[in-house]
Design a protein that fits this description.
Keywords: Exonuclease, Hydrolase, Nuclease. This protein is an alpha/beta fold and 188 residues long. It contains seven helices and five strands; from the N terminus they run E-E-E-H-H-H-E-H-E-H-H-H. A five-stranded mixed β-sheet has the order 3-2-1-4-5. Helix 4 links the parallel strand 4 and strand 5 (116-119). The model has no long low-confidence stretch (mean pLDDT 92).
């Protein structure tokens, strides 16, 4: 039954786009059908390398702050567990996020996530061939928008969850969110 499908909608911010780059922050929003359950994970990490200036301009994390954080390995088993138990792992440009997650998980000896993938970018392109499918442009179709200039992982996960609810279930709801807390593990 589609309304009982448990999904984790994920987003990762990274030090850059290359294969040697690392995850800076991770967020996941649990959905049951088209509705968020209230379970959320939002974490920040020391990537062990500086951020590319363009990546830092996108996500807003400074290297001096990131150096004080735990490494991804501290939370890898938790991330692997919650995503592996989902019916669906969803994200906008999901291949990007899963590529980074799988590389990080492999570094600690954990297997790849073997859950049904649902990419909102690909689903949007299938629904509207030829249209640009950035998260911001897709959200315009459902009346959603970003709160600011930077692309925080938690905000992007919630925005992708809104798009997932619309594409998969026909539900238009931006969940009324516009304030984003700090990552749960943020060290000042």
């Amino acid at each position: 039954m589609p309304g009982s499908t448990k999904a984790w909608v994920v987003d990762c911010e990274t030090t850059g786009l290359a294969g040697y780059d690392r995850i800076v922050s991770f967020a996941a929003v649990e959905m049951l059908g088209p509705e968020p359950t209230g379970r959320v994970s939002y974490l920040v990490f020391n990537p062990g390398r500086p951020c590319h200036p363009r990546a830092a301009a996108v996500h807003g994390w400074r290297d001096d702050v990131l150096r004080k954080q735990e490494e991804f390995t501290a939370h890898a088993p938790f991330i692997h567990e919650i995503l592996s138990k989902a019916d669906v792992v969803c994200g906008h440009n999901l291949g990007f996020d899963l590529g980074f997650l799988h590389r990080e998980l492999a570094k600690v000896g954990l297997s790849q996530i073997r859950t049904n993938p649902y990419c909102t970018m690909q689903a949007y392109r299938n629904k509207f061939p030829g249209r640009k499918a950035t998260l911001d442009l897709c959200l315009q179709d459902i009346g959603g928008s970003r709160a600011g200039e930077t692309h925080g992982a938690l905000e992007d996960a919630f925005l992708a969850a809104s798009l997932y609810a619309w594409l998969r279930f026909g539900v238009i709801d931006t969940f009324g969110l516009n304030a984003w807390p700090d990552p749960f593990n943020l060290r000042s």
